[in-house]
Amino acid sequence: MKSYISPKIKKKKNNIGYGLFTSEEICKGELVIDFSNSPGKLINTKEADALFKKGFDYILQIDENSFLAATNEQELEDSDFLNHSCNPNCGIKDKVKIVAMRNIEPGEEITFDYAMSESSKYKMKCSCQSPNCRKIITGEDWKIKELQKKYKGFFSEYIQRKIDKIRK
Q1: Is 140 exposed, middle or buried (0-12, 13-18, 19+ CB in 10 A)?
Q2: How confident is the model at residue 1 (pLDDT cuts 50, 70, 90)?
Q3: Can you name the residues that pair with 33 across neighbouring β-strands?
Q4: What is the CATH classification number for the domain harbouring 141?
Q5: What is the phi/psi pair of residue 27, to 5°?
Q6: What tens digit of pLDDT does each residue of 141-165 get?
Q7: What is the pLDDT of residues 40-65, one digit of tens each?
Q8: What does DSSP assign to residue 162?
Q9: Which domain, by its residues, includes 132?
Q10: How far is it between the farthest Cα atoms of the chain?
Q11: Domain total in the chain
Q12: Distance between CA 94 and CA 151 in Å, rounded?
């Protein structure tokens, strides 16, 4: 089984290793990646933390103690090179679908904000270089009101449930 990745996207080297770049225009709302058939495994927080510490952090949080992760080289796919940006062009639909938040021009890197899916206890230095870069990304960023407004409709189901709970 393999994740769906749009034929308009190619993995290329970037300033942090690899990323996904468009070879032709992608329209707002278009499905970019679907991890539904990923060869990765569902793992718990302890296993995800161990992978993150090793630097093998091809992980998408899908629930409180549940992560979809490539746990070894054999499970790694081009779609796993989806990187973070504080000024993303993609968001999440449902649990594991990545969709364009706006029209994306050829040559742009495909990115999403980890705040859209992550609530685990982690910190990482951000390398996105966008003007509104948060510099440090954490599992608490989904709580930022400005981001909740900016990414409305593009949070994972899991994070949206958390947002809805704190608003009540």
Answers
A1: middle
A2: low
A3: 5, 98
A4: 2.170.270.10
A5: -90, 150
A6: 999 999 999 999 999 999 999 999 9
A7: 999 999 999 999 889 898 999 999 99
A8: H
A9: 4-167
A10: 44
A11: 1
A12: 14
